Amino acid sequence: MTDGIYRMAVTSGHSHRDTVTLAGQQVRHWLKAQHYEDPGAEDGRHRVGAQAVLDCALKDRVRGASGAKESVARWRLREFTPQGIWQTSLTISTPPTGGTWVRLDAEQLPVRGASATKAPVPALARGLLDVLAAAEGEHQGAARVHGMPTVIERGDVDEVLDELCDPDRRMPIVVASTPPRVDFDDWLAETVDPLLRGCAGLAVLYALAPGAERDFNRALEHHRVYGGAVRTYLPGLDPAWAPEAQRHRVMGRHTLDTDLRRASGLLAWLPRRLAVQSPLPDALAGLPPLRAQNLRGGSAPWSEESADIAAIDGVQPGSLLVDHHEEEVHEERARAEELQEVRRWLRDAEERESQLAAEYDEQYSELREARTQVRSLRGRLAEADGGEGATRAEPAAGRVDPVSFAELIERIGEFPLLSFTGDPRLTRELDDQTDHPTWVRMAWDALLALQDYAEAAVHGESGGDFRRWCENTPVDCHVFPPRKVIRDESRTVRTNTKWKGERELPVPVEVNAGGKVFMGAHLRIGGGGTAPRLHYFDDCSGTGKIYIGYMGLHLRNTRTN
Asked: Distance between the two ends of the chain, CA-based, in angstroms?
């Protein structure tokens, strides 16, 4: 699992030599802040604390992924605890072609059988960003990466738009807007700064000044952010294509005001995942791992006291001085290259999925408009033929669709045979995930179709379950794509205790004395494998109703966990 890893990969605005010097200073400041000893500037293994070891290799020349020799400097701090090892690794690599890359990783290596704890943003990351003039890539126009958000004024809008639309962009760009009638400086200090703190080194961070908001949103008509909302713009932004807007998640002010700390964690989740799963730059890929026995200069003397530390690390005393064979180095490099290739496949597959999901939503919107026109024409035709069949078509034509999930939940009472038993807060939070209306439209279509099905089912006229109904919908009833109707969860989900428990959802006691039933049947709302879900229980043959126990982001399974 990679959920707990923090990884920053940026370019330095300085030469390799200056970057190493500046990074070394920041490492020493960082160690001092944690009350560790100063290791100096020597290669080797340094015992900087009672349960902490720092390995340094500051003047290596190693063969990188391209096969050429690269200048590399590395530090690795290992802090040993009963729960496992906290490991922080800093690598500076400059290939012969130039361009100095800086990579910082922090993670917990748990003891056997335990789960890893998520690594927070290291203080070292912010120190490095303060001095390195870091950028998210080495191409011309690459956006600067700062530990705290940069304010976008009116004169900065064009430059930020160029960064957003840069086809070579690697990192997400997070833009926070300002609510009306709020002091901008107070909003920055009290909300935006703590909110974006967890994204330091993982994304380019901006705060949109009120005076710049109109120009910014005019240029990004389909990808706007306003009213105190925060938007995460992924690489590959197409500002002219409305359907792909759902890729770029929106977090509304309501979520920030409800629980700022939780909102900060939610906001950082996607940049953290992308940082770990995306392919590494060539200058950082394929480097042999840092090993104490490969360090130039003398290692710290082995002692009985340090042997206890090494035992936690799975290393036997004395083995640190044993040289490894060249074939092992080749094998490790091959594994690194294979992992890099898997990262590329994953990135390409996710980009393709996002594109197909956007295309599907665009087609669904067009199909929905065509269906609305067909229903209207059928109603007019029925009227002209003497009124037969018009009764059912007219109410649908006059019913106004909701514009948000918050409104949809408020109007659930318009469906007498549907009962929403879930948590409405989780449904309203979908409004914070995207401003694209397709999800709301599709969810509303699902409710319309479920109501029509329930009316037929209570009279024994449905011809089967809801999936069969959608495959053979009567001409005067609302339609829903049958491929989006899933009759039950997979065996993997049903046999996983945690995942199954998430799908045991509330129902009245007259349905089940325990007050819950497993709702494996669900509808996919929107395109893509991780789109929102509506879970329901069909009790038309019993209480005469359908119970909706959940409408929200995809519950955990093999893809979302």
From this structure: 9
Say what the pTM is.
Answer: 0.66
Residues 6+ apart with CB under 8 A from 18: none
SS (H, E, C) 224-248: CCCCCCEEEECCCCCCCCHHHHHHC
**What is the average per-residue pLDDT within 241-249?**
79
Q: How many CB atoms lie within 10 A of CB 245?
A: 25
Q: Are 542 and 511 in contact (CB under 8 A)?
A: yes
**How many residues comprise the chain?**
561
Q: How buried is 457 (Cβ within 10 angstroms: 0-12 exposed, 13-18 middle, 19+ buried)? A: buried
Six-digit token pair at 287? 């480097």
Q: How confident is the model at residue 277 (pLDDT cuts 50, 70, 90)?
A: confident
CA distance 184 to 205: 16
pLDDT band at 397 (very low <50, low <70, confident <90, very high): very low
Helices 16-33, 123-131: inter-axial angle, 10-degree rounding: 140
How, if at all, do strands 230-233 and 204-208 pair? Answer: unpaired
Q: What is the pLDDT of residue 429?
A: 84
pLDDT in tens, 464-483: 999 999 998 887 888 898 88
- Higher-confidence residue: 144 or 69? 144
Give strand pairing partners of 539: 545
Q: Residues 171, 143: contact at Cβ < 8 Å?
A: yes
Q: Quickly list H helices, 34-71.
A: none
Judge whether 518 and 473 are in contact, CB under 8 Å.
no
The helix (run of H) or strand (run of E) holding residue 137 is: none
**Rounded distance, CA 125 to CA 36, Å?**
18
Instruction: Reply yes or no on whether the pLDDT at 300 is more than 70.
Output: no
CA distances to 59, 230, 292, 321, 332 from 296, rounded to whole Å, are 8, 47, 9, 12, 20
Q: What span, in angstroms and rounded, lies between the C-alpha atoms of 146 and 537?
A: 49
